[in-house]
Amino acid sequence: MTSAEGHSVGLDVVAAGSREHLPGQCDGELHDVGRTVELGPAPLYRPTEEGRLLGHVHLGLRLIEERASGLDAEVRAQLLHAVAVHHDGRAARTAEAAVLYHANQLDAIAATRPTE
User: Fold this and answer.
1) Angle at 96 between CA 98 and CA 7, to 5 degrees
2) What whole-number distance in Å separates Cα of residue 42 and Cα of residue 65?
3) What is the tens place of the pLDDT at every residue in 84-115?
4) Which DSSP letter does residue 47 get?
5) What whole-number distance in Å separates Cα of residue 54 and Cα of residue 69?
6) Distances 103 to 23, 30, 47, 68, 111 between C-alpha atoms, Å
7) I need a surface site. Which of 1, 15, 17, 38 has the fewest CB within 10 A?
8) Is residue 105 within 8 Å of residue 11, measured between CB atoms?
9) Which long-range contacts (CB under 8 A, 24 or more apart) does 93-97 make?
């Protein structure tokens, strides 16, 4: 498992207790999907030019918008919002977005990932 996969699993574990109380998009599976475009191939995972300029949040929003047209418009908007603000808790306008932000912060603090 890569550290990125571990991070998404970590967010799922942290947010799991909230799911029954906060229906919707509380999981962390998609919050870093933009990393797939932001970073180049293994083993170096160097930033791509697009990744360097736009960052994983913007790229993730683009990927979700391109592929989530089948979702209900309100659900899609909530998902996009949660991904958009997962680094800025003050910008969270829904409980799900706030949970994702805090789960992301907790996992980042608790994670032990390789430095290389």
Assistant:
1) 75
2) 26
3) 999 999 999 999 899 999 989 998 888 766 66
4) B
5) 22
6) 16, 13, 25, 23, 12
7) 1
8) no
9) 94/24, 95/22, 96/22, 96/24, 96/25, 96/26
- pTM confidence score: 0.77
Distance, in Å, from the CA atom of 47 to the CA atom of 7, rounded to the nearest integer, reads: 18
From 93, 110, 79, select the one nearest 13 (Cα to Cα). 110
Q: What is the DSSP letter of 89?
A: G
- pLDDT tens profile 34-83: 999 999 999 999 999 999 999 999 999 999 999 999 989 998 999 999 99
CA 60 to chain CA mean position, Å: 8
| CA 3 to each of CA 37, 76, 90, 94: distance values in angstroms, whole numbers, following the listed order | 16, 27, 27, 28
Q: Which of 34, 25, 36, 19 is nearest to 77 (CA)?
A: 25
Give the domain ranges of the chain.
3-110
Report whether 4 contacts 111 (CB < 8 A).
Answer: no
